[in-house]
Every structure is written in C-alpha cells, then in structure tokens.
Amino acid sequence: MRNNILGGLVIFFVVVTCLLMIDDISSTNEVQTTYKKIEVEQVEKPSELATLDEEQ
C-alpha cells in the first residue's frame, strides 16, 4: 500500500513537471521583462546578528 502511494506521488510530480515545461515552451508570445537599471544601496549599519560577551 505504501509503495503504491509513493509511486503515485512520483508519477503525479513527473506529470505536473512535464505539463509546466510544455506550457513554458508553448508560450512564446509572452514577452519577458528585462531591467536595464539596477540600484544598489549600501547601508552603514552594524550587524546585530551575534554578540560576544567576554568575562575576565
């Protein structure tokens, strides 16, 4: 019973993947957006991910 469920799931995901690939290949009339300008902002803020407490 367990092998039947796992096999069914594998077949399901393979079929869904194939359908998505066919849909992606067949939709050639859609235009992909391209970005010409990329802005990068650098923030000078100290990271507070970890604190180190040293006792002497």
Keywords:
mainly alpha; 56 residues; flat
Describe what this molecule looks like in 3D.
It is a single chain. Helices cover 45% and strands 0% of the residues. The chain has one helix spanning 2-26. The radius of gyration is 25 Å and the shape is flat. The mean pLDDT is 79. By secondary structure, the chain is mostly helical.
Ordered list of secondary-structure elements with their pairings:
Elements: H1 2-26
Task: Provide a concise account of the structure shown.
This protein is mainly alpha-helical. It is built from 1 helix and no strands.
- What's the number of extended β-strand segments? 0
Query: Could you say which overall geometry the principal axes of the C-alpha atoms support?
Result: flat
The proportion of strand residues reads under 5%
- Look at the structure and give the mean pLDDT: 79
Largest sheet: none
- Termini separation (Å)? 63 Å
How many H/I helical runs?
Answer: 1
- Based on CA atoms alone, the radius of gyration comes out at 25 Å
